[in-house]
Write a structure and sequence with these properties.
single chain, 441 residues, alpha/beta, Spore Coat Polysaccharide Biosynthesis Protein SpsA, Chain A, 7 strands, 51% helix
Length: 441
């Protein structure tokens, strides 16, 4: 668990190098002879088009991985700790405890832990009342300035856990009563270090923004499943991650010098040889954010944490601890998710400076085409939990257009990481409890 200041200081020059490299790659073709200007983008389009067909498209319309139902296996279930780090969650904390108590799992093998991470609302007192009534519930209070963000909260409880598995949830999470048993049996059978449940948006019908996020979560699960099926890498998503406790401890615990504990842990589990599995069903249900301002804050954090892991662990990707297929998968994902948006901005700048046509469009077509096919495949699958959005020409166009926000978020976040010192804070997402309630302002 690295010290925040030292790590973040080392990231700034790496982030600056990343931005300079992407900007140069986007600008350079505009100074090539006209016959050669599309060659770089076409080369990337061919590479990533082949990756997309092999990794995603050929897998997208196959049956997703679903955990078997309960009752078919008589082997004893291992002990599990359900862990939630909560800050200012008075709107949902009572409902959360009720949902956790409804899980069908042997009570002697299940412990429920909630870390009140310096809440300034009524979360702490509500938890103190609940712990008096429910013997399975254990509450830890941290001060607001304890440090380490969500990772610090999870590390606080990690040293006290005894279970073989720990299920990490967000405060707005909801699970089917049998979901924990199904996920645990799948994880045990597959000898995984971790298993991520598909994230399903519970308020997808609230407005166009939440509908687009519901499509994005389906897209993400389809792409992750395709990556994993061809020897690539699956990643944790924070909410609904089932972790083998010894694998987490052996990988160094939760990194307190990152803003996304899940993405960082994904890479360290990979480096330490622990496979991550993925389940389409059962899902974990959660709230989508309702406003553009909330989406902007959330996606900046996701983008920063996503880029941080590549800056921190690049040397490890070239070690013998990562296979060739995993390395290729990570490279292609990095190009699509992080390099393309910055190159696209540089390409537009180059077009304005040289009065030439944009050159990056073949690369962009591959990215948006991959996204559209993944949305189509994901939303047409059978799925437990909240209904997935119905796919019409309008909704598909909405989902694809919505993903364009990454072409703003990634360049902005990369620039900020390169120029400004990072202050590690927990920029949590507001959970409302009632998905029909719009936050003030």
């Amino acid at each position: 668990m690295a010290a925040g200041g030292t790590v973040t200081d080392r990231r700034r020059p790496k982030a600056a190098l990343f931005m300079v490299g992407c900007l140069a790659a986007g600008l350079f073709p505009h100074w090539l002879p006209s016959a050669l200007r599309l060659v770089p983008a076409l080369s990337l389009a061919v590479l990533l088009g082949a990756y997309s067909v092999r990794t995603v498209i050929l897998q997208a319309f196959r049956e997703p991985l679903v955990a078997p139902g309960t009752g078919g296996d008589t082997d004893p279930l291992p002990s599990v700790d359900v862990v939630v780090a909560a800050r200012d969650e008075q709107a949902v904390i009572v409902r959360l405890v009720e949902r956790l108590l409804a899980l069908r799992y042997p009570s002697e093998r299940l412990s429920l832990w909630i870390i009140d991470d310096g809440s300034e609302d009524s979360t702490g007192p509500l938890l103190d009342e609940l712990v008096q009534r429910h013997s399975q519930l254990r509450v830890i209070h941290r001060t607001r300035d304890a440090g380490g963000g969500k990772s610090g909260a999870l590390n606080t409880v990690l040293v006290q856990l005894q279970g073989r598995w720990m299920l990490v949830l967000d405060a707005d999470a909801d699970l089917q009563p049998e979901a924990l048993e199904r996920a645990v049996r799948h994880a045990e059978a597959g000898a995984f270090g971790a298993v991520q449940l598909r994230k399903a948006v519970v308020n997808g019908d609230h407005n166009l923004l939440t509908r687009a996020q519901a499509m994005e979560m389906a897209l993400d699960a389809v792409i992750q499943g395709g990556r994993l099926a061809h020897g690539g890498v699956a990643e944790l998503r924070g909410n609904g991650q089932l972790l083998r406790r010894e694998a987490v401890i052996g990988s160094g615990g939760f990194n307190e010098a990152t803003v996304t504990d899940d993405l960082d842990l994904s890479f360290r589990l990979l480096i330490h040889g622990h496979a991550i599995g993925l389940l389409w069903d059962p899902p974990v249900q959660e709230e989508a954010v309702l406003t553009l301002s909330a989406l902007w804050r959330q996606r900046q954090r996701w983008a920063e944490g996503g880029l941080q892991r590549f800056l921190d662990y690049t040397p490890d990707f070239f070690s013998d601890r990562v296979s060739g297929s995993q390395r290729l998968d990570l490279l292609c994902f990095f190009l699509l998710q992080y390099v393309l948006p910055v190159m696209a901005v540089a390409d537009l700048l180059g077009a304005l400076l040289t009065l030439t046509s944009p050159t990056i469009w073949p690369f962009s077509i591959v990215a948006f085409g991959l996204s559209g096919l993944s949305i189509l495949a994901g939303c047409r699958r059978q799925a437990e939990g909240p209904p997935l959005p119905a796919i019409t020409p309008f909704s598909l166009a909405l989902g694809i257009a919505y993903l364009g926000h990454w072409f703003v978020v990634i360049p902005w976040t990369g620039l900020r990481m390169a120029l400004l010192p990072k202050r590690l804070v927990w920029a949590k997402t507001l959970h409302l409890g009632d998905p029909q309630t719009v936050p003030p302002g």
